[in-house]
Write a structure and sequence with these properties.
heterodimer; A: about 70 residues; mainly alpha; elongated; B: 23 helices; globular
């Protein structure tokens, strides 16, 4: 059966894991009420940096694998 | 006499000149039907990435999004986060495999994978419905920006905006659309960043911004776990999760993004283009989060506001003044007007036009290929379509834009709202066949037909019932029947349809005849190998 490469699942675990941790921390510790903090975790990390890192690993590792196979 | 400041006029005129020039120049590079449909598969990573951004993000991002954010509160930021995170997810889920396959139209994969050419009709019909709705929304968006910022009469804005899109789509097809969309992505991102930075400076940096927003809108930073929720529609964690997922998988499955994967030079370029898209769109959405959070405060303390002012009332005044669209559609314009800087307003006008035009052009390219090549040439075996593909594609582009223009002249509110329906119906009706077709050998032809035929009307009924009977598209359509309370469960745009579509597809696949082995080997196993 076809199956996406491991790096795909790594990206998903990192992103969904991060969102879940943030939501749990908001529900239990109220981190959303720390002045300025939602900007850093929901906007800078959650909307910009983590998706960007996912996009990097999603082209970097497949390209490395192609090179190892002697491809383009 | 309404006055418009010189920078607004100057920047808007420069923008129009630039995209017409790009369209005209790209005409010289058009040599074949493949150039027209998929830009000769020669688009580089940066251009395709930026084009993906501006095409995917609809004018709603630059019109009503600030109002959505200040009404639903900070939890809506997570819906925006999920839209951006959906971009990289598409890289290995659909983009790499589809580029390896290198089709020309959105329907190609379905017809080949399920070994059934008739699917070109089915996929095409669902796509055409979505295209008409989005093209109309985009034309209305263009005209609204011209009306509210440059004070151009609405009907003139509708006609001018449509003609300019028509010019460059007709001239250069996907080549012009790609280059213009990349330029438009740069502009709209720049516009949002400048406005966001101006807001942060005005409010005293990140901390000052947080505190000012909290002082103006005390429930804004709350979540469903706080005693007072920001809003009914973001008042439970189920609602927050619904907003999170409603647009999350669109990038991997929507026709206007999927066809952009076909235009890149190779699979490596396709993957890298999504990096550029995520970079630009991430910056754009961070900026919109700031603008949205601060917009209520800005509107209430700006020149239109004052002691005891209410942002919603002010926006309703805008709507009454201009007489088009809904009051949330003026939230971006009102927020930026409150900064009282004509240069920022001018760039916003160009950015707003950019996001609307790129979405309209992207959809026109999807449907002109489907109608000309799939329906005209392949299904109806039209000699004219076979011998004159570019001419016919140009005629089809003009027809779709004229249909959009005709509806946009006096747009019924429901038609504009239905673009939200179209987005989810395409994911739930056509998404399972695309994603499971690639990754599941057992995906069957009967499942493809059943899912598309059932999910399209079912979702339309659910969406209309929620909107017209219960009062909002975000109320679960069976709330009154199951819970006796129309607001019991919040399911934005009837987001449940996406998992239901996938489950239906899987069940029907398991009980129906598998697709021929050769098709499965070629369009499932081979395509997904080493993506």
């Amino acid at each position: 059966m076809p199956w996406p490469p491991k790096v795909f699942w790594v990206g998903l675990v990192v992103y969904y894991g991060f969102v879940a941790i943030c939501w749990i921390a908001e529900a239990t510790s109220g981190i959303n009420h720390v002045v300025g903090l939602p900007f850093w975790y929901a906007s800078f990390l959650g909307t910009f940096l983590i998706p960007l890192l996912m996009s990097v690993i999603y082209f970097y590792f497949p390209e490395k694998a192609e090179e190892a196979r002697g491809g383009a | 006499m309404v006055t418009v400041e010189a920078p607004v006029v100057g920047i808007t005129v420069l923008y129009f000149l630039a995209i017409v020039a790009i369209g005209y120049y790209s005409r010289q590079r058009l040599k074949s039907a493949t150039d027209y449909y998929v830009a000769g598969r020669q688009v580089g990573a940066v251009v395709n990435g930026l084009a993906l951004e501006s095409t995917y993000l609809s004018p709603a991002s630059m019109l009503g999004l600030p109002a959505y954010i200040f009404i639903l509160g900070y939890p809506f930021w997570w819906a925006m986060s999920a839209i951006i995170a959906g971009m990289p997810i598409a890289t290995l889920l659909t983009a790499s495999a589809l580029r390896k396959y290198a089709p020309t139209s959105f329907a190609d994969y379905y017809a080949d994978r399920y070994n059934d050419q008739r699917l070109r009709w089915l996929v095409g019909i669902v796509t055409v419905i979505g295209a008409v709705l989005y093209i109309t929304l985009s034309i209305v968006g263009m005209a609204l920006f011209l009306l509210a910022i440059a004070k151009v009469p609405y009907i003139v804005g509708v006609i001018v905006g449509t003609i300019i899109v028509m010019l460059y789509v007709v001239w250069g097809g996907m080549i012009a659309t790609s280059w213009n969309a990349a330029f438009q992505a740069f502009l709209m991102t720049l516009a949002a960043v400048i406005a966001a930075v101006a807001i942060l400076i005005k409010l005293g940096g990140i901390s000052g911004f947080y505190e000012a927003v909290a002082a103006n809108n005390p429930k804004f930073w709350n979540t469903p776990s706080d005693p007072e929720v920001p809003h009914l529609l973001s008042g439970t964690w189920i609602a927050v999760i619904g907003w999170f997922f409603v647009w999350h998988y669109g990038f991997a499955t929507m026709p206007y993004t999927v066809v952009r994967f076909f235009t890149t030079m190779d699979i490596k370029t396709a993957r890298r283009s999504i990096f550029w898209c995520t970079l630009a769109a991430g910056i754009f959405y961070m900026a919109l989060q700031i603008i949205g959070a601060g917009s209520k405060l800005l509107i209430e303390t700006g020149p239109m506001g004052g002691e005891g002012a209410n942002a919603v009332s002010i926006l309703k005044n805008y709507m009454a003044q201009y007489g088009v669209g809904g009051w949330p559609d003026y939230s971006m314009v009102a927020a930026v007007e409150a900064l009282q800087n004509p240069w920022i307003l001018g760039i916003l006008c160009a950015g707003g036009l950019a996001i609307a035009m790129s979405t309209a052009a992207g959809w026109v390219m999807v449907v002109n290929t489907l109608v000309t090549r799939d329906w005209g040439d392949m299904m109806l075996k039209s000699r004219y379509a076979k011998e004159n593909p570019i001419t016919l594609a140009r005629i089809i582009s003009v027809i779709f834009l004229l249909v959009g223009l005709a509806i946009a002249v006096n747009p019924p509110g429901l038609v504009l709202d239905l673009s939200g329906w179209a987005f989810v119906v395409i994911i739930s009706a056509l998404g399972p066949g695309l994603i499971l077709g690639l990754w599941w050998k057992r995906a069957t032809r009967a499942a493809m037909w059943t899912t598309a035929i059932i999910m399209t009307p079912l979702h339309l009924y659910a969406w209309l019932k929620a909107k017209l009977v219960l009062g909002h598209h975000a109320f679960f359509f069976l709330n009154d029947v199951l819970f006796g309370d129309k607001t019991a469960l919040i399911t934005p745009h009837q987001v449940w349809a996406i998992p239901v579509g996938f489950i239906l597809f899987i069940i029907v696949s398991l009980i129906t005849k598998p697709v021929e082995k050769e098709a499965v080997e070629k369009y499932c196993i081979e395509l997904t190998k080493e993506v």
